[in-house]
């Protein structure tokens, strides 16, 4: 039986995965929604065009959760490697592997592996294409401020959720003007919570193992396997 700590970790990792896949959806699939702000649309198109030629992308990131009112200030680090619709995410001691069909959540601390088949119709499904669909129907966007961050010019684009039920007030997507790469993603909640994902390292076309996105059960002989379907 999963512990509350493990459930918290897996939920946190799933949320993290959604944000990362949201970014990668912007990278890999482009934008098909009608332009609401031509300058913002042009910049996003440049980002898409720049990255579409990459065979794979590896990101080291920092994830921060802050709420001054609740006195919450948490930082975590992780990394993700993506190729097409496959990925390997390492975050908070948990590894998630998605081979294009199934997700394998590996928790060494509890020696447990959860295996589930991804259903595109599931709102919680973490895939680039699913995140793209949500983005296309869920936001309005426009140009925001231009900041100088350690000598780098970061242009922000503001995304405002259309649904009044969305707990986020706005999302700010920071883009490095020179490289046309995503620098960070900031979500501002209606109740004062701010989460920030900052890209510390962005590598492309790395030499990957042919089994990079393949789950090998033989590596975990003593683990409990929890198959959800």
UniProtKB/TrEMBL annotation:
<dbReference type="InterPro" id="IPR029046">
    <property type="entry name" value="LolA/LolB/LppX"/>
</dbReference>
<dbReference type="Pfam" id="PF16584">
    <property type="entry name" value="LolA_2"/>
</dbReference>
<keyword id="KW-0449">Lipoprotein</keyword>
<keyword id="KW-0732">Signal</keyword>
<protein>
    <submittedName>
        <fullName>Outer membrane lipoprotein-sorting protein</fullName>
    </submittedName>
</protein>
<dbReference type="InterPro" id="IPR004564">
    <property type="entry name" value="OM_lipoprot_carrier_LolA-like"/>
</dbReference>
């Amino acid at each position: 039986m999963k512990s509350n700590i493990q459930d918290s970790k897996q939920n946190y990792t799933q949320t993290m995965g959604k944000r990362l896949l949201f970014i990668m959806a912007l990278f890999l699939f482009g934008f098909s929604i009608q332009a609401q702000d031509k300058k913002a649309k042009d910049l996003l198109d440049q980002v898409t065009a720049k990255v579409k030629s990459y065979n794979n992308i590896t990101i080291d990131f920092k994830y921060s959760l802050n709420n001054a009112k609740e006195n919450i200030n948490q930082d975590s680090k992780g990394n993700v490697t993506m190729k097409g619709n496959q990925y390997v995410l390492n975050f908070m001691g948990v590894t998630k592997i998605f081979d294009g069909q199934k997700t394998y959540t590996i928790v060494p601390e509890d020696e447990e592996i959860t295996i589930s088949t991804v259903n595109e119709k599931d709102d919680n499904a973490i895939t680039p294409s699913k995140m793209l669909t949500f983005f296309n129907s869920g936001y309005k966007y426009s140009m925001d401020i231009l900041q100088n961050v350690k000598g780098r010019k970061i242009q922000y684009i503001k995304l405002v959720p259309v649904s009044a039920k969305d707990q986020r007030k706005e999302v700010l997507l920071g883009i490095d003007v020179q490289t046309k790469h995503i620098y960070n993603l900031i979500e501002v909640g209606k109740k004062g919570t701010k989460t920030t994902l900052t890209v510390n390292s962005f590598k492309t076309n790395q030499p990957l193992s042919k089994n990079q996105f393949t789950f090998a059960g033989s590596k975990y002989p003593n683990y409990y396997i929890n198959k959800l379907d």
